[in-house]
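User: Structure tokens for this complex, please. No commentary.
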Amino acid sequence: MRNLVQQSPMVLVLAFKRRLGMMFGTVGNCDVWNCWMRACYISRHSPSGFCTLEITAKVKEGNVEISRGREATKGFWLAATDKSGTLTPFNFSRRETGDEDVTLKILYCGVCHSDLHVLKNELGVTSYPVVPGHEIAGVATKVGKNVTKFKVGDRVGVGVLVGSCKTCECCQQDLENYCPQITFTYNSLNPDGTKTYGGYSDMIVVDQRYVLQFPHNLPLDAGAPLLCAGITVYSPMKYYGMTKAGKHLGVAGLGGLGHVAVKIAKAFGLKVTVISSSPQKESEAINRLGADSFLVSSDPAKMKSAIGSMDYIIDTVSAAHPLLPLLSLLKVNGKLVTVGLPNKPLELPVFPLVFGRKLVGGSDVGGMKETQEMLDFCAKHDIAADIELIRIDEINTAMERLAKSDVRYRFVIDVANSLSQ
Amino acid sequence: MAKPPEEEHPIKAFGWAARDTSGHLSPFNISRRASGEEDVRFKVLYCGICHSDLHSIKNEWGFSKYPLVPGHEIVGEVTEVGSKVEKVKVGDKVGVGCMVGACHNCDSCANDLENYCPKLILTYNGIYYDGTMTYGGYSDSMVANQRYIVRIPDGFPLDSAAPLLCAGITVYSPLKYFGLGEHGKHIAIVGLGGLGHVAVKFAKAMGCKVTVISTSPNKKAEAFEHLGADSFLVSRDQAELQAAMGTFDGIIDTVSAGHPIMPLLGLLKSHGKLIMVGAPSEPLEIPVFSLLIGRKTVAGSGIGGMKETQEMIDFAAKHNIKADIEVIPMDYVNKAMERLEKADVRYRFVIDIGNTLAATKP
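Assistant:
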């Protein structure tokens, strides 16, 4: 507490407010009401003239220990401080490169729809300040002494997770993404209680287990979105057995996830139908992405004619929507896998499941081994995302456009070139 | 003009039918077709009362055609076989379940999944190939294509075998298909009624650790001592549910009333499966997040194909799995339906057709 007081009068105010029990949001699963002080702060008045964000709190249940941050490399990032979701630049520092760590200079970071949800606290789990970004591509600039998989200069990436327990059944089966103690790349807690901050930044330090190797022919900018969007659709295709050549896959929604799903599915030899409420996407879907057909979900006659025609459906739609029309499209034993994140429960009619032995499953990104496999697969089949490169200072406008789905199909922040200007 | 049911076919038969949505059952004359070369005719000895019978006689699903003779858990003794029948002979004990026909041409039929054929013909309240209504097992005789005849193993008591022809296959099939009926798996059975009690027995025989989840704490002793369940959760007890979170490989949900499934999803381990075999008429609310975090699935299953139904009966005979039944005379059937509606039965009524139906002829 004393150290923080010396740093900024703002901290005192915040600490005092905390004492009075005012809530500044939750930090992971720690109920702030149980903390007698929160020592994570933002000051716009530090002597250096830069905005300084220093992570100094160790937040434990019912208690808060204050310690100095492990300052090492100074860096830069974009953070949002409230649910307006407006991103503003800050300088900061990340931890030192540990023995198992890889330090990346970030060149590109994809803008995922999850970033938008979290910025605006639409899922109710955001702890501000938040630095999003989990489609990170760059170059290794430093590696810890135990790191064998990577060397300085390697083209590398970081996706949705940066930590897990490494000992549970899921971790042992290369399913770190389902570990109950997963650490997400941003808006999450490290085991030491510090927060994670994502790739809207110029550098990041990550345990080698959670770093991916970019194949030499996979471009960093168009490959970055694969680290979330790509694995999100690749993993369920493998797990739910949706890769048998000649089978018929429906892809519901043609956005960041959907367009990559079409490309990967075609590479598996599937017949692909895009299911979308936007008729104007048809030409794009068929002529450019290679889909075999296009179904307008708001056209009852077209939907009726396609009843019982699909072996599988990947549902990428994140808005709330009825499942019954999609279930009707499935054949007997058909599988509907949902990878979008509607913020309301969906209605699931049971009769179509029972009378067709149909299945609705979820899937959430993929483990590290499978993510690497996905990158290699995409490189082999010349698959990358369709992107619109933006500068750092265009991020808030991009977020507004993303909220209206006005992007074909992923924004990617050109970090390196933005910073150099 | 359509012929009345008792004149549609050459062989006279007698049963009980519901005439309207009151569901009241009463004596009714019907007729059965002459035996074709693939047909097996049998004298009905017992017929189980399935909850579907209750839904159907009251037209709760909206597609009942009256007069309706229910019953699709039918066992009896063969009296006649067609010239091409090799599966069974006169005197054999046989059964018929939920279906008596299908297209035999589609992918499902080719894979021994007649139950998923889009042209499935139900044992009752269906339309047969010749355009006539099908009448079920609340009657003195049945005739069915040999493909839809199940052999009852020698020595297996017929009365307690009858419910397996619907309830048994309804739970056996998903235990096998979804990989839940494997040694060491931890399975929960939601609902302890006609389906649920048989599910416990099958799952135990397959080597699973079995937990019963029920709203009724008074079923606990029964579940442990009689059915062999390993544990019991009262679904309204939040503390018990909380303690069991993330412990189940699979859940078979036999409850047909609408109910929240989010607590059930929470009980699953990651990669766990929730299989619906009851069919609530209202949609369930499914929080998608609960499926994503843990890669969980919700699926449905409806009875099983003929090959699997035979496999199920043979498995049941081998492991001495019988339904727990209350045998009733034919004229008790309306009272039984009232009690069934209140779930006041342990766990299946079975009508003693052979000994009590004839006496009810007017």
